[in-house]
């Protein structure tokens, strides 16, 4: 029972049409014809596009099976639905294309009135669409421009805790954001540079000294001059790190003080008003 229900749920005109098309492409022409007839005989009737493709596959399959009469009937039904249908010569063998063209030529007395009816229907629909657009344009002119347009700018709370002035940029403090960003970049670069230089000097084996060295080596293996240099570099390293994190803390505090979750800008002809909102 469950399998039957699933099969009924999956069985759609589109799925049946795909099955018919797949059978035809694999050369199973009897199965393709049978599947196409199932699509065309379904209740309710399939959509027009599905029916067109089903008649096309049925006509092709019947031709491949050698039944020219059944193929002709299928192609005529296809043309009655859409008199401008054609077969792609890159996908369909030339003999079938020639056969289809002969069928269309023979059925032209039947197709001409249908083609004219479709043309008139298209013209009516196009005229109705143009009238609808014209009425909409006239209504827009009568009503005039909107009396008020509200532009809402949402701010993200977590951006206040990012470095490099992100919170200031979000709050619209561009100048302050640039100052904080440049300061943190400079302090960070100085800090990283001092770390690199410190490590390079400390790990340079050519700068070592020993107890046998007469001067400049009171505390081997690092010469006294290098020890003083490393001490100075450490000062630069810690000061730059402190300035970096101090500027970060200042940026976070400043952005939180000036943070507004939402800015609503009311734009009216000739003027604009800004409304701040702290709704969370």
Explain what you see.
This protein has 280 residues and is mainly alpha-helical. It folds into two domains: 2-106, Serine Threonine Protein Phosphatase 5, Tetratricopeptide repeat, CATH 1.25.40.10; 157-277. 65% of the residues lie in helices and 7% in strands. It has ten helices and three strands; from the N terminus they run αααααααβαααββ. The protein has helices at 2-10, 13-25, 29-40, 48-64, 68-81, 94-106, 108-143, 166-171, 174-202, 224-257, and strands spanning 149-154, 262-268, 271-277. Strands 1-2-3 form a three-stranded antiparallel sheet, with no helix packed on it. Strand 2 and strand 3 (271-277) form a beta hairpin. Helix 3 packs antiparallel against helix 4 (48-64) and helix 5 crosses helix 6. It is elongated. The two termini are 53 Å apart. The model is unreliable at 1-9 (pLDDT under 50).
Name the features:
280 residues; mainly alpha; 65% helix; elongated; disordered N terminus
């Amino acid at each position: 029972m469950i399998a039957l229900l699933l099969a009924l749920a999956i069985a759609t005109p589109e799925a049946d049409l795909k099955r018919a098309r797949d059978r035809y492409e694999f050369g199973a022409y009897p199965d393709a014809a049978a599947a196409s007839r199932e699509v065309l005989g379904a209740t309710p009737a399939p959509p027009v596009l599905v029916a067109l493709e089903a008649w096309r596959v049925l006509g092709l399959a019947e031709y491949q099976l050698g039944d020219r009469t059944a193929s002709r009937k299928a192609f005529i039904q296809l043309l009655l639905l859409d008199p401008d249908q054609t077969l792609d010569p890159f996908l369909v063998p030339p003999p079938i294309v020639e056969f289809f063209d002969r069928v269309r030529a023979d059925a032209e007395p039947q197709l001409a009135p249908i083609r004219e009816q479709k043309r008139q229907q298209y013209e009516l629909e196009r005229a109705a669409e143009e009238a609808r657009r014209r009425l909409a344009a006239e209504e827009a002119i009568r009503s005039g421009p909107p009396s008020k347009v509200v532009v809402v700018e949402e701010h993200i709370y977590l951006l206040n805790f990012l470095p490099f002035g992100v919170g200031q940029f979000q709050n619209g403090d561009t100048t302050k954001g640039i100052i904080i960003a440049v300061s943190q970049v400079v302090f960070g670069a100085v800090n990283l540079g001092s770390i690199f230089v410190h490590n390079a000097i400390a790990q340079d084996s050519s700068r070592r000294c020993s107890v046998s060295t007469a001067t400049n080596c009171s505390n081997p293996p690092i010469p006294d001059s290098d020890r003083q240099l490393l001490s100075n570099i450490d000062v630069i390293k810690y000061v730059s790190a402190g300035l970096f994190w101090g500027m970060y803390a200042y940026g976070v505090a400043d952005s939180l003080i000036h943070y507004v979750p939402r800015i609503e800008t009311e734009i009216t002809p000739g003027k604009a008003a800004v409304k701040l909102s702290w709704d969370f």
